[in-house]
Amino acid sequence: MKKAVILLLSLLLTMTMCACRKDEAKNQDSSTDDGSYDYFQPEPNRPEKPVIYLYPEKETLVRVELDFNGRLTSTYPAYRDGWTVVAQPDGTLTDDSDREYYCLFWEGETQVEYDLSKGFCVKGEDTAEFLEDALVKLGLTDKEANEFIIYWLSRMEGNAYNLIAFQQEIYTDNAVLTVTPAPDSMLRVFMAWKAVSVPVDIEAQELQDFERSGFTVVEWGGAEVR
């Protein structure tokens, strides 16, 4: 009888120690830089595929700096402390090793919450047609719009509906772009979207026209809101 009691107590002690170790590991995974714990850290939003096109009026040495309120996860060419390229009027970019690019690319993670209070609720099957029309109104060229749609369409057209809102200051204020020399015109198209199963009644967003003039900088990207 004593042996059975001892074995039972040993088993309970072992289970308690294992549970403590699991809790300790969980706490360590949730620790912050200052040693405190954050169990309720929200899932970050992920700006995807922001690409930047540079269209100077003549061959120009251009420096581009990005002040992003978040963490960069991928850049190409490598960002380091900025991008410096020679830009041609047709958009071709060349770095100091003579490698050519057609755009500058970055992605990241941020806790910024995007605004979906105004926008559009679009059937998944109508996504391509909607984007073709909206992106032209916003000022993208056919080539730029084509690249935008190719990137996002496969993730949107199979949904019942998509809630779509093109971001303005909430995006540009948290991903500040500084271009030297300063462009004459700059267009930054950033789409926040969310898949929904039923139609959502939402106030329509007014899309602003954009006129290209002189040295023009264009950027597009987006983020799926979960």
Distance between the termini: 57 Å
* Oligomer kind: single chain
Rg computed from alpha carbons, rounded to a whole number of angstroms: 24 Å
Estimate percent helicity. 25-40%
Overall mean pLDDT: 87
The beta-strand count equals 13
Low-confidence stretches: 1-9, 11-41
The ordered H/E elements are HEEEEEEEEHHEHEEEE
What is the SS-derived class? Answer: alpha+beta
| Number of helices, counting only DSSP H or I runs of 4 residues or more | 4
Quick one: biggest sheet? 8 strands, mixed
Provide the domain count.
Answer: 2
Strand order of the largest sheet: 3-7-1-13-11-9-8-12
Walk me through this protein's architecture.
26% of the residues lie in helices and 35% in strands. It has 226 residues and is α+β, with helices and mostly antiparallel strands. The chain has 2 domains: 1-41, no CATH class; 48-224, no CATH class. It has an 8-stranded mixed β-sheet with strand order 3-7-1-13-11-9-8-12. It has a 5-stranded antiparallel β-sheet with strand order 6-5-4-2-10, with no helix packed on it. Strand 5 and strand 6 (100-101) form a beta hairpin. The protein starts with a helix and ends with a strand. Mean pLDDT is 87; it is low at 1-9 and 11-41.
Topology:
Layout (H helix, E strand, L loop, with lengths): L1 H28 L18 E8 L4 E9 L2 E6 L6 E5 L5 E2 L5 E2 L2 E6 L8 E6 L3 H12 L3 H15 L4 E7 L1 H4 L2 E6 L4 E12 L6 E2 L11 E9 L2
Parallel strand pairs: 8-12, 11-13
Antiparallel strand pairs: 1-7, 1-13, 2-4, 2-10, 3-7, 4-5, 5-6, 8-9, 9-11
Helix pairs in contact: 2-3
